[in-house]
Each structure stands twice: as C-alpha cells, then as structure tokens.
Amino acid sequence: MPHDFQITRRIEFSETDMAGIVHYSNYFRFMEAAETAFLRSLGYSIALKRGGLELCLPRVHAECDYSVPLRFEDEIRIHLLVVKKGKRTLTYQFRFERIHPAPSVEVARGKVVLVSAKRQRDGSLKAAPLPKLLADKIHQAPPDLLK
Amino acid sequence: MPHDFQITRRIEFSETDMAGIVHYSNYFRFMEAAETAFLRSLGYSIALKRGGLELCLPRVHAECDYSVPLRFEDEIRIHLLVVKKGKRTLTYQFRFERIHPAPSVEVARGKVVLVSAKRQRDGSLKAAPLPKLLADKIHQAPPDLLK
Amino acid sequence: MPHDFQITRRIEFSETDMAGIVHYSNYFRFMEAAETAFLRSLGYSIALKRGGLELCLPRVHAECDYSVPLRFEDEIRIHLLVVKKGKRTLTYQFRFERIHPAPSVEVARGKVVLVSAKRQRDGSLKAAPLPKLLADKIHQAPPDLLK
Amino acid sequence: MPHDFQITRRIEFSETDMAGIVHYSNYFRFMEAAETAFLRSLGYSIALKRGGLELCLPRVHAECDYSVPLRFEDEIRIHLLVVKKGKRTLTYQFRFERIHPAPSVEVARGKVVLVSAKRQRDGSLKAAPLPKLLADKIHQAPPDLLK
User: What is the model's pTM?
Assistant: First the structure.
C-alpha cells in the first residue's frame, strides 16, 4: 500500500454553489470517495455491498481547512495518508491539490476519524476491533510525510 | 386526506449552483420531501424506519418542467396531487409555487410514478400490491383539479 | 463528434440512500456530468467559467425512467445522444448502462431539454439562439440510433 | 439577538445513505442552514441575493464531532452560538440535538470559521472587514454558555 494514496477528479457543475465555487460540504464527499478508493485498492469496501451492512466505518470526527476555492471543471488530486491506526479507529489526512488550471497548489486539507462498528440485529451499531485482514494491510504514514 | 396536499420550504444556499439558481436535480428532492410529508400525514412512512426496510416505494419514472428559476431564500409551496392509484403503483403530480417574493407564481411542475415493492431476503426488491391500510387512505384527485 | 457520446463513472457511497440504492435525484446529476463532458469535448463549457456566466443553458424539462436500481461501487456507462437541435433548444437522450457487475444491462433512460439563454445585466436570463460556433458542432443522432 | 439561536428541521430521505443514517457531509449543510437563518434574523443574508454577490462569507474551517447517528424523520434542533467575532472572521459553534424520538440528546457538535470577503471585478474574493452594520448586531456568547 502506498503511504500517499491518490485519486483525481474533476469538479462537476452540481458541486458548485451560487458563490461560483465548490460548496464546502462537498469536500467531505470527496474525502469519502478517496477513502473508498483506498479501501477498494486493499480489497475492501466501506460497506459489504450486496450481503448486508455487517461492517460499517462510521465517522466520529471530520474537519477541513480551506485555503483556495475550487471552481467548475477544476481538476484535483486528493491525497490520503493514514495518520493513525488504532485498535478500533482510523485517522486519515486528506490533502486537496488543484492540478488544473496550473500551477499546482494545495487548496484544502482535511482529517477524518472513524471507528469500526458492527451492525446489531436491531440495526444499531456497536464498536468493534478493525477486522484483522483489513488492519494488517493498513500502515501509518511515516512522520516526515505528515508535515 | 386533502386532494391538494401542501408543504412549504425555503431555498437553502447549498441548493443553488454557480448559475445562481436552484440546481435542477434538487426539485426531485423537494418532491420526495412533499411525498414523505404526505405519507406521514396518513400515518405512514416511505420506509419502515427503525425495523428494517421491508416496504419500499422505488420510483420508476420522474419528470419535471421548469418555467421560472428559483433562487436562494425564495419560499415555495409544493402541492402534491394523486393522479392515479393503481394496484401496485402511485402517480403523483407536484406543482411548485413560489410564494415569496411576491407575486405568487407557478415555477415548475413535476410527476413521479412509484411502485410498491417488498424487500427480499437477499436485499433485492420485488413488486407487491400497495398495503391495503395505505391504499384505503389514498384518493385520486378529481379530474378538474388536474388541469 | 460521436453520435453516441459516452462517459463512465462509479457509484459513490454518498450517492446511495437508506434503501441501499442510488437516490433517484442523482441520475440528473449524472446526466449533467455527461453533458458537460460532451460540451467540453466540443471545446465548450456549460458555463463560461472564469469570466462570468454570460451564456447559460438552463433546463426546461428533465425526466428519467428507472428499470434496475444502482448500488454502491457499481460502474456505469452513460450514453448521450442529441435527439433534437433546435434554434434555441437542445434535447438529449441519456442511457444508463451498468457495466459492472456483469452482465451489462440498461438500468435507466433519461431525457433533458434545455434552452440557450443570455444573462442580462440584472441577473435574469433571456432566451437566445445557440451560439453558431457551438451549434455547428452538434449533430442530431440518426433516427435508427434512437430506438 | 439570542446567544443561543435555534432552528429545527426533520431529516429527509435524501439525506440518508445506505448505512441507514444521515450522511456525515449533510451536517455541514445543516450548519449553513442554521447560519443563514441566523443572519436572516439580523436582517442579513449570506449573499446579497438579487443584486450580485458583492459580500461573501467563505468558510476557512469546518469541523464536526458525531456521537449519535441520525435517521430518517428524526427531528433535530440546531443551536448556533457565536464563539468569536473578529474584525474579519466569525467563529460559530453548532450543537445538534435530536428532539424526536425522545429522549432529547445531543448527537453532534460542529464548528465553522468564516471570513468576510468582497468579490473583485475579476470574480476573485478578497478579505475585508465585516460590514459594521452586521458586526454591530452580532455578540459573542458568554463563556459559560460555551462549555
């Protein structure tokens, strides 16, 4: 697994708001898209897709710092780094880099903390250790990458 | 049950796009909000909320005609009329009326067709008659209301 | 320009709803994404991006027929065909094909009608002919493609 | 102006995801809805609505801690408190309280920092002091309210 996992995407019209820039809530959708691509690259999905949602990874904290606004048709690269792998939690850092139009520039930085949970019979969620098969594949980024 | 069921709502900032108007996909969210309020008024929910999703009402057709754009903080009244109650289907008409700023004006008109479905053990959906308790409470609008 | 313009995308977690399937309003976001890719392929954007929104293409009608639900991580191909090029309007057909998981199957079909409009000084929109440079590049699909 | 400004809303179907709970990005839309209601109560809008977007309040930081998931048709009360009023910035705290189903419980807590900005001729944004008329109406919450 790469310590700096990356995806790219292009800003869609529906992601803008009347200020002409990407609505701030959409960055959290983008972070999730990077995360699901990351887990998919490890052979996992944030949801067992067809066979019921036994394992879930609900978020307990999410944050984002915005420095440069994004606009329609901008192309961005999202970097995902694992800041911390706990017994039942994962902490990701996300860096948003605008790669088009040039020059390339970091435009936002996010952080998400999630817990591993199992769905109970009554539909409620209960914290549970990260599955070993998943945990073994995830490695914290070295500190020098996390400046 | 009123033949012309109504809700009101105010346009939110996140519902606009960079053209300065409400994004056209949001009208379908608004129609659904009117429908869930309608079903709630009959004692029903479009999803059995806590106890699993046994009954679902998936949409098979949706459409909208847009005549006047909506903007941030506009207040609208959404009218829901039952066009047709079939054995397994419901057809709604939705009229979007902008009530603020004045003067009041119809700005859009939508239609949604849904089928009654039951969730199978494997998670798939299968068409099923509308539950009698629900069907008995729903009445088609008289033709003169549906001009 | 190809008569059957295509894009692919993968369903994101945030595009699902509690029924476990893609929310019906998102298909309209997907259609728009196909359209903007189409216009981009012609050297155009549905919005003059940086220099103000002089030319807009507001939608006057949108519809979708849903036959098979889409789920998280499904991969789809969206086909855009130009049904009709008028002096001031464009009508698109969209076909949603699920390409993963196999077998490939058409899951939905949409239609959108838009008008060409110019933004006035006061912010309002006024219908205007499609710009010639754009109109010259767009060709109606032959009837046999539009079965 | 009340130090604990409040709005209520009901969770909509389109705000849920396939985990059966409200998607975490929607809390940021909810915070903004509380903020726009707050500014409206002071006679302001986060956007000059009809006459162009001269004054904007772009977000530079947003965060949320999630403790209890929200579900379809839950009713919530959102509390907005002004944590800090700077010369060019505002910091809000948001408390999400689920009021239905009973018992009432705090389910999430958010924070947003925004800057006052003026739109330049070229469409870019430039930081500018909060308009005096607005700043004079906004008061920081007393520290004991911000436990």
Answer: 0.95
